[in-house]
């Protein structure tokens, strides 16, 4: 069940689905996932004080950059947004289903049935490997390194 609410004072359109959070048309990146895409003209084109073009060239370049970036994005998203959203939704649905019904049951099965391997492996580590590294650590514990700076340079 989906509700659509329009707040005419703030010009904010929100979609609310039962059991989910509200989706706002105004705030389309509420978690800041795409912070790196906030690119402006000044981030791409910058003229140092020693080399400058004509003022009109700079203004028209700035305007054309912004218009081209905005309208190319809108046209590309018009063509690709719906099919890619559908594909992403299907992909995440398949991955969720595999994770819930295949991967986690297999992991739990391994954890339940392989408890004896964990016990044997822990015993091997404690009996054979741990004393070896403890003795190496005790042998090397007295080694100290002093770094001195040569003042002649």
UniProtKB/TrEMBL annotation:
Keywords: Cell membrane, Golgi apparatus, Membrane, Transmembrane, Transmembrane helix
InterPro entries in the cross-refs: Caveolin (IPR001612), Caveolin_CS (IPR018361)
Superkingdom of the organism of origin: Eukaryota
Any Pfam family the entry gives: Caveolin
Gene Ontology MF annotations: molecular adaptor activity
Membrane topology: Peripheral membrane protein
GO biological process: caveola assembly; cell differentiation; regulation of cytosolic calcium ion concentration
GO cellular component: caveola; focal adhesion; Golgi membrane; sarcolemma
Predominant location: membrane
Subcellular location, record wording: Cell membrane; Golgi apparatus membrane; Membrane, Caveola
Positions of transmembrane segments: 78-104, 116-133
Summary of the function given for this chain in its UniProt record: May act as a scaffolding protein within caveolar membranes. Interacts directly with G-protein alpha subunits and can functionally regulate their activity.
Sequence similarity: Belongs to the caveolin family.
Name recorded for this polypeptide: Caveolin
Organism: Xyrichtys novacula (Pearly razorfish)
């Amino acid at each position: 069940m989906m509700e659509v609410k329009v707040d005419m004072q703030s010009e904010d359109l929100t979609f609310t689905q039962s059991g989910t959070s509200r989706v706002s048309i105004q705030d389309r990146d509420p978690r800041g996932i795409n912070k790196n895409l906030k690119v402006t003209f000044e981030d791409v084109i910058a003229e140092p004080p020693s080399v400058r073009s004509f003022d009109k060239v700079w203004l028209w370049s700035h305007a054309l950059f912004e218009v081209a970036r905005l309208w190319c994005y809108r046209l590309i998203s018009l063509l690709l947004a719906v099919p890619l959203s559908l594909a992403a939704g299907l992909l995440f649905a398949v991955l969720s289903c595999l994770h819930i019904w295949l991967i986690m049951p297999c992991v739990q099965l391994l954890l339940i049935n392989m408890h004896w391997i964990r016990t044997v492996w822990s015993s091997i580590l404690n009996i054979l490997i741990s004393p070896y590294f403890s003795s190496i650590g005790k042998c090397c514990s007295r080694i100290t390194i002093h770094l001195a700076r040569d003042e002649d340079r």
